[in-house]
Amino acid sequence: MGESRTELLAWLNDLLQLGYTKIEQCGTGAAHCQIMDSIYRDVPLNRVKFNAKHEYEYVANFKVLQMTFDKHKIDNAIPVERLVKCKFQDNLEFMQWMKKWWDQYYPGGPYDAHARRKDGSGSLPQSTRGGLARAAPSSTMKKSMSSSSVAPAPKSKSGPGASRVAVNGGNDNWEREKAELETTYGRMLEELQTQTMDLKVTVEQVEKEREFYFNKLREIEVYVQQQLEMGSNPAVEQSLKEIQGIMYKTEDGFEIPEGGEEEVEETY
What we know:
The protein is about 70% helix and about 0% strand. By secondary structure, the protein is mainly alpha-helical. The radius of gyration is 31 Å and the shape is flat.
């Protein structure tokens, strides 16, 4: 028998440094992604939305989880459609399975969940990784620039050796600036890729909803037309005509394209 809701929440909050109070909160998919990251340390947490509030965002998180399953050849199916509804039983059962998997494959040792979420790339945060090493060249460069601007060496006293030192110093500065630009560019590119993925997921979700409601309206339209053709008592027929009028009502200024009415008639 799997762990209870209370046991799972205690374990989850301790492992991931969260404050979940309901197992239904796991329906966002974020916690599942980081549980897998605690095992494999390679989940792209920068693509996981821990503050997700909409169903399409939950779906995006579960896509990241599915990518991790595929990468590590985990065969267990993810019932995304049920989990994103944030129902208790579905999320309890899946979390019980996740706990069993974690018990079997967790490599041991400490796991800094907060640092992993803060960085988002699965490594230590930028603020703690090589911070002093980056600060030192920057201050040195400032001092070098300051001293050179205050007391530049006269050209008449500069020999070949001094020229080589100046050139080498300029190359070092350029290499540092180039590395900083490449880092900034890489970060911006990663952010844009994440935004593009989010927009793609949103568009897919909107298209699915649009198709769903269009099909419903089409079914209603066909049913009303059939009932009118069959004939019924005047009161029902009047109600059907009113429903039909609402369905075909257009906004002010809207014009039906040429041939539009003929196309509608042909569909019946």
